[in-house]
C-alpha cells in the first residue's frame, strides 16, 4: 500500500444555508459535517490530512484540532484553486491523495477504503467516485471508454442528448497520484463562464497525457449527498439517524420507535437496553446494558451504568451508576456523580453534586454543590442553599443522615453521620453525628383567634 494523503475542501461559506454558522460546521446527528468526514478519513491511516479553510477558518480549526493540518484559501476561486493551497504541504510526496468535500457527512469509511483500493489496484493516476442516479439532472456525467476507464466528465450544460441519458454521475470525490496532481493543477485554466479553476479539469489533463483515469461506482447514492442548504441538511440528518439506529438495533438495543429516537454518531449503547419514544442521546454518551431510557428523555455526554432507568428527564455531563432510578421530570446538571442504587425522583434538580450508594432524593428538591453520603434520605423539598449572591459554597451530608421535608441547608454546612434534621428546619451550623437538629420557631396556638377576627370584621 502506498502513502496516503487527504485534502478536505472546507473553505466555502455556504450562502444557501442562510446562516451565521459556516456550512461545514452545521451538525448532522450532533456532529459537525466536516468532523464526520475527517473522522472517517482518520480511520484509514492517512500520513497527512490537510483541510482547506477559508470562511470561518478559526472555528473550523477549533473544531478539528490536531486531527488535521490546515491550508488557507483566502479567496474562493474554485475547487482546483482550493486543492492548490495544499501544495506547500503535499507537493513532491509520493503516494495517493484523496480529495473530498467537507459537506459530505454521509460518506462511510468503507466506501472511501474501497475507492482507494480500486485506485491502487487499477494503477490509475486519477479515480473518480461515481454513483448511479435515476434523475441525474444537474450532475456531471461520467463517459467511459470501451475499457471501462473514464473518457471524460461532461457537465450538464455541455452534454449532448446521448450524454444526458447517462445516469452515472460525478460525486466530487477523487483519488490522484499526488505528484501528478500538483503538476496538473498548474495547467488548469479559469477560462470558463464562472472564471474559476475546476478540479475535474485535472482529470481531463491527466487523460490527455495518456494516464489511466478510472471510476469507482458506489452502490449507495445517499452516501454522496452534498449538503448545500437546509433541505439537504434535513435529508442528511434523516439518513444518518436511520443508519445509526439500525446499527444499535443490530447490536442488541431495543428502539421502540426509531422514527422518534435521536442518537448521536458517537454514542455507545449496551445490549438489552431499551430506548422509548422521544429519547435524545447527544454527544459521547455511553449507556451500559439492560437500561431503560425514556420516554421523552435527553442525555448528553454522560456515562450511564447497568440496569439504570431514566424517565422523562434531562441528564447532562454527568456520571450515573448502576441500578439508579431517575425521574420522571428530574434534571441532572453537569459535573454530578450519582452512585449505585440511588433514587432521584420527580422534580428534583441536582447540580455538581456527588450522591453515595443507596441515597434518595425522591421529590421536589434542589441539591447543588453538595457531597451526599451513602444511604442518605433527603426529604421532600430539601434544598442546599449554595449561593450567597457572590460565591458558591458546599454542603456535606454524611452517610446515613436523614433530612426532613422542607429543610434548608445553608452552605457551607455539614450534617454528620447518622444525624437527623427535623422537618421545616433551616440549618446554618454543622450538625454533629447522630444528633437531632431542630431549627424552626416553636409552635404557638392562639385559640378562638379566627372567631375574634371574624367578629371584628362583622362589627
Key terms:
11-stranded parallel β-sheet, 39 strands, elongated, 459 residues, Spore Coat Polysaccharide Biosynthesis Protein SpsA, Chain A, 14-stranded parallel β-sheet, 3 domains, UDP N-Acetylglucosamine Acyltransferase, domain 1
Mind explaining what this structure looks like?
- There is one protein chain.
- The chain is built from ten helices and 39 strands.
- With 459 residues, the protein is of the alpha/beta class.
- It has three domains: 4-224, Spore Coat Polysaccharide Biosynthesis Protein SpsA, Chain A; 253-346, Hexapeptide repeat proteins (UDP N-Acetylglucosamine Acyltransferase, domain 1), CATH 2.160.10; 359-459, Hexapeptide repeat proteins (UDP N-Acetylglucosamine Acyltransferase, domain 1, 3 Solenoid), CATH 2.160.10.
- The longest helix is centred in the middle third of the chain and has 21 residues, at 230-250.
- The radius of gyration is 31 Å and the shape is elongated.
- It starts with a strand and ends with a helix.
- It catalyses: alpha-D-glucosamine 1-phosphate + acetyl-CoA = N-acetyl-alpha-D-glucosamine 1-phosphate + CoA + H(+); N-acetyl-alpha-D-glucosamine 1-phosphate + UTP + H(+) = UDP-N-acetyl-alpha-D-glucosamine + diphosphate.
- It holds the Pfam family Hexapep.
- UDP-N-acetyl-alpha-D-glucosamine binds at residues 9-12, 23, 73, 78-79, 140, 155, 170, 228, 333, 351, 366, 377.
- Residues 1-230 are annotated as: Pyrophosphorylase.
- Its EC number is 2.7.7.23, 2.3.1.157.
